[in-house]
Specification:
Elements: H1 2-24, H2 32-249, H3 261-271, H4 275-282, H5 287-312, H6 318-346
Helix pairs in contact: 1-2, 2-4, 2-5, 2-6
GO cellular component, one term: centrosome
InterPro entries: CNTLN
Protein name: CNTLN protein
């Protein structure tokens, strides 16, 4: 295009020069050199026109190629953006895989440690298994030896058993004979037992009679002891009342000469009370005497309960009963002595 423009500029100059030269020298004929140059320039212009047409065709083709390449570039840019997105996704995946790889490596370390411990345990178990197998082999050998010994013993025992079977058949025959003898003995023994049973029944009847008599004697003895203790208790209470009345009436002279058991009983019968009640009436106002009588009454009550317990306990109880009765008899003797001394002083 530049060459075309230059040539067109040169043609215009030439035309301008030719016009100016034609005006100045109208008569002058155009020179040969200018024509030649004009022809050359026209040829060049033609050539340049052809070249321009060629260049325009090439430009069009290049424009088409540029458009195709731009479309290709757009496609490639779209692919690049897609690839960039894929690349970011792959980066995230790689980071995730790295974190997983680290976790797997840690797990692998722990699993390796557990594998090592398990291998050690497996080795220990294999050693223990070998030792147990060796011990079992030894036991098996010992058991085989014992089996052979037991087989020998079995054969010996079998021979002995056959011998003993023969002896047993002989013994069974003897046993049958012995059973016959035993039946005979049992019949004789049963007859003797019937006789003994009759004798034992008679003896039991006699023993029952003796037991009844003994129980009756025991009951009589208990009633005797109870009546004896009751009489002792009443006599001691009577002596106590006499002593207390003698002490009470000892200060009065009017009753000194005529005081006796008959008078005491006569006074109690008139008042329709017992001698102990009469004594309590006479003792009204004396606190010490009442306390003393209460103590004596409680002691007498305890003594009676003690006698009852002694009669109810199992044998032997005679010595304890004797001690209790002697204690009360001694008390009675002391009361009699006290009463006699009081009566002497009053008389």
């Amino acid at each position: 295009q530049q060459e075309k423009e230059e040539l067109q500029g040169k043609l215009k100059l030439r035309k301008h020069l030719s016009q100016t030269a034609g005006k100045s020298e109208a008569t002058r004929a155009p020179s040969k050199n200018i024509d030649l140059e004009m022809k050359q320039l026209q040829c060049k212009v033609k050539n340049s026109n052809t070249e321009t047409t060629k260049q325009s065709t090439t430009i069009k083709s290049l424009k088409n190629q540029v458009q195709e390449k731009e479309e290709r570039i757009r496609e490639l840019q779209a692919k690049i953006s897609q690839l960039e997105r894929d690349l970011t996704m792959k980066r995230h995946l790689i980071e995730d895989l790295r974190s997983r790889l680290k976790a797997n490596q840690e797990n692998e370390k722990t699993s390796n440690e557990t594998l090592e411990s398990l291998e050690r345990k497996v080795k220990a178990l294999a050693e223990d298994k070998k030792a147990s197998i060796d011990s079992l082999k030894q036991r098996f050998n010992v058991a085989m030896k014992e089996k052979s010994q037991y087989e020998q013993m079995y054969h010996k025992a079998k021979d002995e058993l056959e011998k003993k079977d023969l002896k047993l058949t002989k013994l069974e025959s003897k046993m049958i004979e012995a059973e016959c003898a035993v039946t005979d003995l049992e019949t004789a023994a049963s007859q003797q037992l019937h006789g003994l049973a009759k004798q034992s029944a008679q003896a039991l009847e006699t023993l029952q009679k003796e037991l009844l008599l003994a129980s009756d004697k025991v009951e009589e003895f208990k009633t005797f002891v109870k009546t004896l203790t009751r009489e002792l208790h009443h006599s001691i209470q009577g002596l106590r009342t006499k002593i207390k009345l003698a002490k009470k009436m000892g200060g009065t002279k009017a009753c000194k000469k005529g005081l006796s058991q008959e008078c005491l009983q006569w006074a109690a019968s008139i008042l329709n009370v017992s001698t102990t009640d009469l004594y309590e009436i006479l003792q009204e106002g004396d606190d010490e005497e009442t306390a003393r009588t209460k103590m004596e009454f409680e002691k007498d009550k305890e003594w009676l309960q003690h006698i009852q317990k002694l009669l109810e306990v199992q044998f032997p109880f005679a010595s304890y009963l004797m001690d209790a009765v002697l204690e009360k008899l001694n008390e009675k003797m002391n009361l009699v002595e006290e009463y006699s001394s009081l009566m002497k002083h009053t008389l």
